[in-house]
Design brief:
By secondary structure, the chain is an all-alpha fold. The protein has one domain: Ribonucleotide Reductase, subunit A (Orthogonal Bundle). 63% of the residues lie in helices and 0% in strands. The chain contains 14 helices and no strands. The chain starts with 33 loop residues before the first helix and ends in a 7-residue tail after the last helix. Bound molecules: fe (iii) ion.
């Protein structure tokens, strides 16, 4: 696109997440969506790499015949089977579907950071699989072989139809809703629901003193993912303000329906990971946990809660309560910078 010559400054009031009128996507200032800049700075302060975390104890425990039960090994493998491809799906959506439609340079700054973080997460899973000497081709192919993973991933990928099309453009009500649907599905469902029973499994291991290096990797990932989710929620709520016409009653009902479908997919996945329950967590507990976090996601964008259930895993609450997130991050960042281990 040629540069439009002129001395007239960009009018910040025309800046929008999508469909910005002064669609200057290279001029960071004047900045309007400061939440994106804040998220970018937090992401930088939270920077980490998988190779900085010791996997020695996990290697010993994985090799030992006495530490892990067959059910625990299967749960760990299935969760990794989901994780290993999930962040690549998220990264592709950011880079190939999402980025080019965003007309806010500050939001683009954060998306660049987010895309890199998704790569770090895929690296972390690769590092766990390699460290433990697991069968890479088995774990990385599970999304095509294990129904409960396949069903979640194909549910998500269905929403790329249209957005991935080279000819897709925002600017009509139909297409803006299509874009917002993609944002809701990726932020609220993929990053906000589909990761969370797997997170809970990993912290279940950690609470037993098992595979704690892997769990520490996942803690850093969850810290990043909470930021991705927060950023997505901020974008949804900003688009609602900038273009209230897209947030129709029908559209709201549609998003609620999608979240309810996702909840079923997620607890079906959890039931397959734990056919007999584990660490005091069983299928009923997971169902309730997933319903609880789904309500939080709905609330965060002003949609009605659907389940009204307590959090059955209160030890996860620190991480999922977005109000506490700032403290959560501050504690972690300090500990990380001093090289200490993450503790809940
Ligand atoms: Fe993410």
């Amino acid at each position: 696109m040629p540069i439009s010559r002129g001395e007239k400054p960009v009018n910040i009031n025309n800046r929008r997440i999508i469909n910005g009128a002064d669609a200057d996507v290279v001029q960071l200032y004047p900045m309007k969506h400061t939440f994106a800049w804040d998220a970018y700075m937090v992401g930088n302060a939270n920077h980490w790499l998988p190779t900085e975390i010791s996997m020695q104890k996990d290697i010993e425990q994985w090799r030992s015949k006495d530490v892990l039960t067959a059910d625990e090994r299967q749960a760990f493998e299935t969760v990794l089977g989901f994780f290993t491809t999930a962040d690549s799906i998220a990264a592709n959506n950011v880079v190939l579907a999402f980025y080019k439609h965003i007309t806010s340079p500050e939001c683009r700054m954060y998306l660049l950071r987010q895309g890199f973080e998704e790569a770090i997460h895929t690296h972390a899973y690769q590092y766990i699989v390699e460290s433990l000497g697991m069968d890479e081709s088995k774990i990385f192919n599970m999304y095509r072989e294990v129904d409960a993973i396949y069903n979640k991933d194909s549910f998500i990928l269905d929403f790329n139809d249209g957005i991935f099309d080279d000819n897709f453009k925002t600017g009509t009500l139909e297409n803006d809703q299509k874009f917002l649907e993609n944002l809701c599905v990726f932020s609220l469902i993929m990053e906000g629901i589909f990761f969370y029973s797997s997170f809970a499994v990993m912290f279940g291991f950690q609470r037993q003193g098992k595979l704690t290096g892997s769990a520490e990797q996942i803690q850093y990932i969850m810290r990043d993912e909470s930021q991705h989710l927060n950023f997505g929620i901020n974008m949804i709520n900003t688009i609602k303000k900038e273009q209230p016409e897209v947030w129709t009653k029908d559209f709201q009902n549609h998003i609620v329906d999608l979240v309810k479908k996702a909840v079923v997919l997620e607890y079906t996945f959890a039931a397959q990971v734990f056919p007999r329950g584990i660490f005091g967590m069983n299928a009923d507990g997971f169902k309730q946990y997933i319903e609880h976090i789904a309500d939080r996601r709905l609330e965060s964008v002003g949609l009605p809660v659907q389940y009204g259930v307590e959090n059955p895993f209160p030890w996860m609450s620190e991480a999922i309560d977005l109000n506490k997130e700032k403290n959560f991050f501050e504690t972690r960042v300090t500990e990380y910078k001093t090289g200490g281990a993450l503790e809940w």
